[in-house]
Amino acid sequence: MDNVRQVALITGGLSGIGLSAAIQMLERGVAVCVASTRAGTSEAKSAEASIEVAALDGQTEWLICRLDVQDIASIDRTIGAIANELGPISILVNSAGVYCHEPISRHDNEIWNTSLAINLTGPFLMTRAVWPHMIERGQGRIVNIASTASHKGAENYAAYCASKAGLLGLTRVTALEGARAGILANSISPSWVDTPMMAASLESQAMTRSKSVSSLYEEAKNSNPQKRIISSREIAQQIVWLALDAPAAITGEDILMTGGATW
Predict the structure, then answer these.
(1) How many whole angstroms separate alpha carbon 238 and alpha carbon 244?
(2) In this structure, is residue 55 part of a structural domain?
(3) Residue 118 lies in domain
């Protein structure tokens, strides 16, 4: 990216990968809007405080918005607030996501529709909303958080796998349509990452598989050839590189971050 002031919008930015990415971008001097359904809640106080500290360290501006990526009115309000307070958006990180651990026979319509609405339609709506900003600037970088499961599948995660696989297709189309306008789009597909979502997933599996959370954690760790769980900070480092430092020729790509795992 050039030396013009950058403005980033990060969905799911008060937890896990999104929070780590927001902190690292703020430390790099990027103005960041951290958007989440958790904004303003008691459970988000610690995350919001860390955002403020990172912004002060990076001597840059920040904004925290309550955002539901399923709701067009919520998206429009957030985009308007960013435009008024920070300026045109040049970076979008689609990190908000949900999962449900159920076999297909118990994947009811609500599970399916909600998973696709947040994991796939949400990134589409966000991309469409920021597109005029990026066209105006003549540049933009979009990073979507997919999953190893979008390539390999994962038993009992039908809606999650389908939505994340769709996100790969959306990323490629975004890259093609953005190419002549200087808009780059890439995705990252991690395996197990040490986040609150992973913890919740293991707790859900523990109940259905009659195993302890600790034993499932060990299983996940041992599925990685490096024998460890990837940190959200590592994924954030890749996000920041794609958003700020990567060559313009890198677009339409999906980057696997698995520690060498092939599952």
Answers:
(1) 10
(2) yes
(3) 7-192+231-256
